[in-house]
Amino acid sequence: MSGWDIADIPDQTGRRVIVTGANSGLGAAAASALAAAGAEVILACRNLEKAAPVAAEIGARAQVRALDLADLASVREFAAAVDRVDVLMNNAGVMAVPAKRTADGFEMQFGTNHLGHFALTGLLLDKITDRVVTVSSWGHRFGRINLGDPNWESRRYDRWLAYGQSKLANLLFTAELQRRLTAAGSATLATAAHPGYAATELTTHTESVMDRLLSIGDNTIAQSAEKGALPQLFAATAPVEPGGYYGPHGIGGLRGYPVRCGSSKAARDERKAAELWELSEKLTGVSYRFAG
Q: Strand (E) positions, 71-163?
């Protein structure tokens, strides 16, 4: 079966795209494809040493800027230095890591995957001309948002449930962002995507026996990072539905070409999305300003 592929990316000449976590995996693949289509890409990365060779391979259309999503001071510094961006791709993330805290005291997965990107998007919103793409995961389906204890301070930490919560938060954020953009009469779009099962470094940082098990899956089931990046590239460049969610078409959403995909009932909870939004503004200190 053939479907939407890198060759179908429209001409991106004159457009600027920020890709968080573009030093490897899906982010590097997405940045490379966008630059090949003519875009200027900003690789927003915590690890500048790893990002430098990626930018060098991409060429003159790529630049590296420091961004640590686990540190709100870094997020603010990065955002202040951006004057214009057409597409913000919230790609960076961590998965199933041991119990750790961000610089601001948030649980690492919720703090990095959701709160860091929530703050970044809010700080850049009036500079974004086209759309915000946030990368979620099939794993959102086992996520539950605990608004009373989102940072696992009173519960026993479970790395996989914490990951699921952060990825569910990505989808609730995207839906609520689109609702608020629409209400304000803004033409900016909010979309989300997931890569299915892609072989990336994300599966090697759990610091547990799961690293070994996931490496087996990487070598037998997973598709490449380049193929896994297609849904977020589609969400970033193709004609899409406001608030749309895109992922691979085949094998239960694990592999294949990008299509509009479904989400869990929890991801469609408008009340929980609004409550999460208010909590996220409180925790990050970032209040959104919407202009038509």
A: 85-90, 128-135
